[in-house]
Request: fold
Amino acid sequence: MIKKIDHVGIAVSNMEEACRFYEDVLEIKVTGTEEVKEQKVITAFLPVGDSEIELLAPTAPDSPIARFIEKRGEGIQHIALRVDDIEAELERLKAAGVRLIDEKPRRGAGGAKIAFIHPKATGGVLLEISEREE
Ligand code: ZN
Reply:
């Protein structure tokens, strides 16, 4: 049911600086930015082939991304896996006894439905599962 790596989420302190590096040095273009108010985060999407890099910068000190950077520094924050049917995937994971952060999907950037699997269940990696229109 998992189709591909949808995106890799990277926590950055300064979105403009990070975008400059990706755009000017790596020549990967930002195709959109969006503020996700519930998460107190601004995101930028940079498509690379069939997947994307998602840059995440905090908009408030109590943002989960601000806490992540405080604890671990900037860097890879999560990996997102694309699924066709997020509700079915969550049911499957629950039935398998996998520890979830989100039992129900919530709204992510770009209108995606997303849910996080707890890093304790994955060997230390925060995994997002994501369903969105192609
Ligand atoms: Zn993500």
The chain has three helices and eight strands. The longest strand covers residues 2-11. Residues 2-131 form a domain with the 2,3-Dihydroxybiphenyl 1,2-Dioxygenase; domain 1 fold (CATH 3.10.180.10).
